[in-house]
């Protein structure tokens, strides 16, 4: 690849002085470079201008790095802020192409200008600064590094690596003990992941999340906290719960007496079910051990919510009632989202495979029912409380450790603004997220293995209602015993229907934009839920 070239008469550590260098970087290099970055969320838009809103020099021994806050303006009249740390490298041999911005000729030599997350010296510098509680400062412009436990640099040398996952952030694994998540898209506010982890760490009521080890944030002026980094202890694990569930579902279809499993009576989507009441065929396959694990997952979910609901004094976390403002916000947001999805679906209809197109047409026919249901939300009918929730709860956010589960990534729904992600919601919204994820896993296996017979579909439905039922039974039991206010029975059913529909609509957009061959799953989900809504005649 032909790299752009930049030059300066200054050395790397004095480069601040050379305005023309930064102008060239801002105007000629960054607008193109951003499109190669995984974390850049504006790929579907056209970059018009890039500005540096802040620039600080980070020194660590003889190494120098520049920390940049960049503001990207799009032709579509909106803007994003990102964090871009810069380093120089003498060679680009071991670097992935997207790590390198330009070749640069400076007073102290020729280098490659790179994203500093690819430089292990930068990892060590960040960690050292966290360990020592350091601060970078130029006037009122400050970056804080704070450890949340006793940390030390390992004497026999520092080890780190950049996690190579499809991510919207950059994660460093440090000394194989800590995960340092560096937020790339920035907001003039605490990131919810940062805020929720700080809260859970102070409060010590919930155990099954990665323990907080350190934080990094930027204060460009008094009272402004821009979260830059969140460091947590590594949770030893056997992978996340998504592949685990896929494997269980695959086994289920492989081992199963399909005739018996598909003959099981159907029951409503959100009914709790005691393990001992499971039909015999399901007690054998996938088996009681599997359902006990689902019970543990429900317990951890309820414990997370109990911890998030426990503090009354902190206004960011104190549980609150439903009110008119919330209802207006919820309806507007969901109607807007549904409209956008409806139009997108119409636009993509012809390009969808035959089976997806048939489902899409059915979903399009449900437009009035869906809109009426969304607009029917009435806070006067609701007695339960709203709390801070996980917000993007699915099987991929849960790590498996032995027979237990750890819950990660409290950043909230990626498409929402930071303010929207912090709005207090029913904890049942998270529960609905996970129920959708169970549905996803079953349908993903059916899709990948082409298990499309009526028997396979009915056996899939039996499994889905059993997993959901066992999860709900256990979650409700703990919620009722420990006074987590999720509402009276009818309210719970209504809220679960509402959030199942909301999540499936969200997923439809996510899939149509990112992986259209998966769109069939939320389409099926929406149709299941609209059937239930019709049965309840809300
Ligand atoms: N503390 C941790 N312990 C073990 N694995 C972790 C930890 N934090 C993150 N991971 C791994 O990194 C992946 C991405 O982390 P996550 O917080 O979900 O980042 P992102 O918000 O960018 O998706 C997780 O799915 C998990 O596999
Ligand atoms: O990347 P994030 O963890 O923030 O979540 C986004 O990507 C998820 C896909 O990986 C998406 O989840 C959807 O697909 C999952 C299976 O891949 C499934 O378990 C979820 O239920 C389904 O919503 C998630 O919605 C999106 O925010």
Automatic annotation (TrEMBL):
EC number per UniProt: 2.7.1.175
Name of one Pfam family that matches: Mak_N_cap
GO molecular-function term, one example from the UniProt record: ATP binding
rRNA processing listed as a keyword: no
Coiled coil: none
Maltokinase N-terminal cap domain sequence ranges: 34-119
InterPro entries in UniProt: Kinase-like_dom_sf, Mak_N_cap
Family: Belongs to the aminoglycoside phosphotransferase family.
Name recorded for this polypeptide: Maltokinase
Organism (species): Croceimicrobium hydrocarbonivorans
């Amino acid at each position: 690849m032909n790299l752009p070239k930049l030059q300066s008469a200054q050395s790397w550590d004095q480069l601040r002085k050379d305005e023309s260098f930064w102008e060239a970087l801002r105007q000629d290099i960054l607008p193109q470079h951003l499109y190669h970055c995984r974390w850049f969320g504006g790929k579907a838009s056209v970059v018009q201008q890039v500005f540096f809103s802040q620039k600080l020099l980070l020194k660590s021994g003889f190494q120098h790095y520049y920390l940049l806050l960049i503001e990207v303006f799009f032709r579509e009249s909106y803007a994003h802020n990102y964090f871009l740390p810069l380093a120089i490298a003498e060679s680009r041999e071991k670097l992935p192409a997207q790590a390198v911005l330009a070749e640069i000729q400076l007073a102290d030599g020729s280098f490659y200008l790179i994203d500093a997350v690819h430089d292990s010296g930068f990892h060590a510098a960040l960690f050292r600064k966290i360990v020592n509680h350091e601060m970078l400062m130029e006037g009122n412009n400050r970056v804080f590094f704070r450890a949340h436990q006793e940390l030390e640099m390992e004497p026999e040398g520092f080890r780190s690596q950049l996690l190579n996952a499809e991510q919207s952030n950059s994660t460093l694994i440090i000394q194989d003990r800590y995960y340092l998540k560096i937020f790339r898209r920035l907001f003039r506010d605490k990131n919810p992941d940062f805020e929720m982890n700080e809260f859970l760490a102070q409060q010590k009521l919930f155990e099954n999340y990665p323990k907080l080890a350190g934080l990094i944030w930027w204060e460009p002026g008094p009272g402004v906290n821009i979260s830059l980094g969140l460091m947590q202890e590594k949770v030893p694990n056997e992978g996340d719960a998504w592949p685990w569930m896929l494997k269980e579902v695959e086994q289920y279809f492989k081992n199963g007496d399909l005739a018996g499993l598909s003959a099981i009576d159907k029951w409503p989507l959100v009914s709790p079910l005691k393990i001992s009441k499971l039909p015999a065929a399901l007690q054998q396959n996938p088996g009681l051990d599997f359902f006990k694990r689902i019970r543990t997952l429900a317990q951890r979910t309820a414990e997370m919510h109990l911890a998030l609901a426990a503090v009354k004094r902190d206004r960011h976390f104190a549980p609150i009632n439903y009110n008119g403002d919330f209802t207006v916000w919820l309806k507007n947001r969901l109607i807007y989202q549904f409209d956008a999805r409806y139009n997108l679906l119409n636009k993509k209809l012809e390009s969808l495979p035959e089976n997806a197109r048939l489902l899409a047409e059915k979903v399009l026919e449900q437009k009035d029912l869906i809109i009426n249901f969304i607009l029917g939300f009435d806070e006067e009918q609701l007695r339960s409380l709203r709390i801070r929730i996980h917000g993007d709860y699915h099987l991929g956010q849960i790590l498996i450790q032995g027979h237990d589960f750890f819950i990660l990534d409290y950043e909230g729904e990626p498409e929402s603004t930071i303010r929207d992600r912090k709005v207090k919601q029913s904890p049942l919204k998270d529960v609905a997220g996970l129920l959708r994820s169970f549905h996803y896993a079953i349908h993903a296996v059916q899709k990948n293995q082409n298990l499309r017979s009526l028997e396979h579909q009915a056996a899939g439905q039996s499994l889905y209602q059993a997993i959901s039922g066992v999860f709900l039974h256990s979650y409700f039991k703990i919620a009722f015993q420990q006074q987590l206010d999720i509402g009276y029975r009818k309210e719970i059913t209504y809220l679960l229907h509402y959030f199942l529909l909301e999540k499936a609509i969200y997923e439809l957009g996510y899939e149509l934009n990112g992986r259209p061959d998966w769109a069939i799953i939320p389409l099926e989900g929406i149709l299941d839920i609209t059937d239930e809504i019709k049965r309840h005649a809300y």
